[in-house]
Amino acid sequence: MTNDLSPPWEQVQISLDQQGEEATEFIDDIFEEADEFLDTELNTSPDTALTIASTLSSQKRILEADIETILNDFQGHLRTLRTDALSGIRTSFIGKAMENAYESASHESGTGSDARRKSTINSGVRRNGLFLDLLKSFKTDFNEHVNNTQDSIREAVRSSFSAIQGTFDIIRNDNVALESERDPEFRGRVEKVLAATKENMKGVYDVIEA
After folding, report:
1. Do 189 and 42 form a contact (C-beta atoms < 8 A)?
2. Is 11 exposed, middle or buried (0-12, 13-18, 19+ CB in 10 A)?
3. Burial of 146 per CB tally in 10 Å (0-12, 13-18, 19+)
4. Which pTM was predicted?
5. Interval 6-64: pLDDT, tens
């Protein structure tokens, strides 16, 4: 079974690695787009644009580090899951499923005990539903790790955007009175930059959940 499942498992690993790289590249792209948007929308307010750009750069580094940590943890969980799914150690899925059979076999002794032990273990292996139970255990654990990872990434994105929004709010509130006299459309442009950044950051979810 291990030989049969190892190649597709490696493909899963490769696919997940690619998704992680795509997420990192996507983060680079959305923050680069935000910088370009700043240059266009706030070109008449360079101080404001510089403050926002600095915040975006800081949050980009934090978000990338958070996602790298999350994905590394996910890979660690998958390595453990691979051992549970493909090995025969006592703590693996098959080891736990066969625990009663192993226990019964260990109590056999005397003449013919070897044959009885083999029969007990073989009966356990041939038990109807055994491999369906193993597959269910695998799918349950795998889905749990995937869902937890997606939740962690969503929370990291939300936290990053909240920090960005806080900076935007300060800038908007501190500058709106002054800027509105010189430039009545200032608030609208700041809000436009914030809305565009928020919309772009939602794309991280799509990459992770694809």
Report:
1. yes
2. exposed
3. middle
4. 0.67
5. 666 777 778 777 777 777 787 787 777 777 766 776 666 677 777 778 888 888 888 88
